[in-house]
């Protein structure tokens, strides 16, 4: 995508990562390099990309999305409304967990109640807490009840992994995380902390079986090293590469670049309850200081696209015509001059290695150029997640973030980031809360779009967060890999094939 516009970088000097003993050719084992290791392999505990791209191959979800982005059956084969608040699901009767036990409707009920239990404290709770009950009518029938009409239910259920009740209840939470049991196309084999997770193909899988007997998900924090691994043949897919490294892969003649614009939106987050970000004029000056087009074209090589709202065109809820403050550094300087010390009080931008630090540094420079006093604070992804989802007291002054709910619906990004009930949120705005609540309580799609337009207009007016761009997912892949990047960024091993020798 638009690689012809990129400056062709000089090929990376030879570097290498030690290959774990026993790694076979790509036909026998697919090797995928991520930025970091999973935070969790328990699918109800965490949902950052380095976690869910591993555990989504271990577990089946109630529903899924096909490669075209349409909701499709998985554990549930069909579903229908009994009323506006009751939905009946028929459950497959030919699924077994990796320990040989049969998956039944009781496991589905257990999984729903586990992730919606406030005491379990799942970071995903805000996406499922409209479900008030789950009942197994028989071994293959489940009825879910919601606290009102809930139009996002099916989109969210594409992320609901089914865990085995018998296995979860037999061990501690930490023990299940260390050795998870699912029903998916690959089963857990080993986890060498900080290095790799090994999965083995589930040859008894009920659905499409994987092409590779084994898969290795490796933690390789340095992007240049990930690309070097691809070019040396020690990995088959590398994630989280930027436009410069994509150009390098293209120029090298070894491997290929695969990309897609996603539902993910990159944004500049601000804690509006902490000074100086509690001042609306300070936030307006920040909005005027950030050159979205410059970031996209000058740094990101045109893979991404600027946005003025928290919803990307790949998700329901995106509306045309939202006008946010544009790039106007002179106006930003005027505001800062008028505010004086209020605007020049120091603040920091929290970031983590998974994010493109070229963008973070550009944001810092743009803010400094108009007179802000801002520093970058680097932390690991686990700490970043903890601080960002623990309420206004812990949420940092500002941060660079990219959000994807995996559901391709505005509710999955707007509700957790903006609604006052969410641990991720720091905004308290009754009008905003009301619109978000109403949008998840009607199945009228036109009404929902009107409500999300209202939310986007409020956010643009108050600058509670500053949307930056629709993110692309960019992979480097071995020439023999056949893989279609998805807007929801999922990597399903049983949708990847190998055509090389």
From TrEMBL:
Q: Does the keyword Mitochondrion apply?
A: no
Name the predominant localization.
periplasm
Q: Which residues form the signal peptide?
A: 1-21
Q: Where is the Solute-binding protein family domain?
A: 70-422
Q: Which SUPFAM superfamilies match?
A: Periplasmic binding protein-like II
Q: Which GO terms describe its molecular function?
A: peptide transmembrane transporter activity
- Quote the protein name from its UniProt record: Peptide ABC transporter
């Amino acid at each position: 995508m638009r690689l012809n516009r990129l400056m062709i970088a000089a090929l990376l000097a030879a570097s290498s990562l030690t290959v774990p003993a026993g790694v076979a050719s790509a036909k026998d084992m697919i090797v995928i390099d991520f930025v970091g290791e999973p935070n969790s392999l328990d699918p109800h505990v965490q949902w950052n990309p380095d976690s869910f791209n591993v555990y989504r191959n271990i577990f089946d979800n109630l529903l899924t999305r096909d490669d075209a982005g349409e909701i499709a059956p998985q554990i549930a084969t069909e579903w229908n409304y009994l009323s506006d608040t009751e939905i009946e699901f028929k459950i497959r009767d030919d699924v077994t967990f990796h320990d040989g036990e049969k998956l039944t409707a009781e496991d589905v009920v257990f999984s729903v109640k586990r992730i919606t239990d406030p005491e379990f404290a799942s970071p995903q709770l805000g996406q499922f807490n409209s479900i008030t009950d789950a009942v197994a009518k028989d071994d293959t029938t489940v009825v879910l009840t919601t606290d009102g009409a809930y139009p996002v239910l099916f989109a969210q259920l594409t992320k609901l992994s089914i865990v085995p009740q018998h296995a979860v209840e037999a061990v501690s939470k930490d023990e299940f995380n260390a050795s998870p049991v699912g029903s998916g196309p690959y089963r857990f084999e080993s986890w060498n902390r900080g290095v790799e997770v090994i999965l083995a193909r589930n040859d008894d899988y009920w659905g499409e079986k994987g092409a590779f007997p084994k898969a290795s998900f490796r933690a390789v924090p340095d992007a240049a090293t990930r690309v070097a691994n691809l070019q040396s043949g020690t990995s088959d897919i590398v994630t989280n590469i930027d436009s410069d490294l994509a150009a390098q892969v293209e120029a090298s003649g070894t491997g290929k670049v695969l990309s897609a614009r996603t539902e993910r939106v990159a944004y500049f987050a601000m804690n509006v309850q902490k000074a100086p970000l509690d001042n609306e004029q300070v936030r307006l000056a920040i909005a005027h200081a950030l050159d979205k087009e410059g970031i996209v074209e000058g740094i990101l090589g045109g893979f991404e696209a600027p946005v003025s709202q928290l919803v990307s065109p790949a998700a329901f809820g995106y509306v045309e015509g939202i006008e946010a403050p544009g790039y106007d550094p002179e106006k930003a300087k005027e505001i800062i001059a008028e505010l004086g010390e209020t605007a020049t009080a120091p603040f920091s931008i929290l970031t983590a290695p998974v994010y493109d630090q070229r963008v973070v540094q550009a944001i810092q420079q743009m803010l400094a150029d108009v007179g802000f006093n801002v520093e970058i604070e680097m932390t690991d992804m686990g700490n970043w997640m903890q601080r960002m989802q623990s309420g206004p007291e812990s949420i940092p002054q500002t941060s660079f973030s990219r959000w994807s709910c995996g559901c391709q619906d505005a509710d999955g990004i707007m509700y957790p980031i903006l609604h006052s009930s969410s641990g991720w949120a720091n905004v308290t705005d009754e009008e905003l809360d009301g619109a978000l609540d109403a949008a998840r309580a009607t199945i009228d799609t036109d009404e929902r779009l009107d409500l999300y337009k209202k939310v986007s207009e409020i956010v643009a007016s108050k600058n509670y967060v500053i949307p930056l761009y629709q993110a692309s997912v960019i992979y480097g892949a071995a020439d023999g890999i056949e893989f279609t990047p998805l807007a929801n960024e999922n990597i399903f091993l049983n949708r990847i094939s190998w055509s090389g020798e």
